[in-house]
Amino acid sequence: MIVAIEWLIDHLEFLSNPIYVGGDSYSGLTVPIVEMKLALNQLINLKGYLLGNPLTNLDDDNYRIPFAHGMGLISDELYESLQRSCQGEYSNIHPSNARCLQDYQAYSQCIDGLTSNQILEPYCGVDSPKPQELFSERRFVNEKYIKLLVHQLSPCDFSRINAYKLSHLWLNNDRVREALHIRKGSTQEWIRCNYGLPYTKSILDSFQYHVNLSTKGYRSLIYSYTRTYSNRMTFATVKGGGHIAIEYKPVECYAMFKRWISNQPL
């Protein structure tokens, strides 16, 4: 964020350009915070933000059952029984609540075998693999093995999965790093899903940030339904899009973005 402000100061010709902040998934916690911080700087022509399937609360288990009901994955009867027996608390069911546990088990059976990130996609067992799960010797992946990856026969979309598998090779390539202007020595090996990074979770819920930003009049596009509210918040659905919608439907996502950024109806 500081770098962005410094860059604008060094390139004053872009100072009047409209600025939007965007992200997907876990960025649902961080993007609204960054947007709020940028809003404090009068130099920036801040207009709004975009989020794809954003995380709003770290404890999101309580929203999975209403989603499953809304998508027709569980019956009205089971949903109503879950509401009665669990009282809307599905992430921390008390062991003594036998009826709630029974209903939750029935719900789990209904969604068993579905891809949680994209319920219309065949269950592939791996949707965002980590390097250590892909190659036992990831530094020594030969061309023969790469060709095998690309030509697997399956109903699953392996073009996307293969991109995950090979991303560490691409981003650790010296020519790629040079093209991206990554200074030598500034970072070591790039690792996908690097959970070893040290940080502290200080904000567990971004809901209030959304409220504050909409109160200030900033536009927002959250693509996970299409509906626009008076507070300039638009929800949109990319049909057939998975968790990171642009990976599944890049053309459709671009069309959605182009219309929204141009203030056209979706």
From TrEMBL:
What is the superkingdom listed in this entry's lineage?
Eukaryota
Q: Which GO terms describe its molecular function?
A: acyltransferase activity, transferring groups other than amino-acyl groups; serine-type carboxypeptidase activity
**What is the scientific name of the source organism?**
Camellia sinensis (Tea plant)
Which family is annotated? Belongs to the peptidase S10 family.
Q: Which PANTHER family does the UniProt entry name for this protein?
A: SERINE CARBOXYPEPTIDASE-LIKE 19, SERINE PROTEASE FAMILY S10 SERINE CARBOXYPEPTIDASE
State the name under which the record lists this protein: Uncharacterized protein
Leader sequence segment: none
Q: Which GO terms describe its biological process?
A: proteolysis; secondary metabolic process
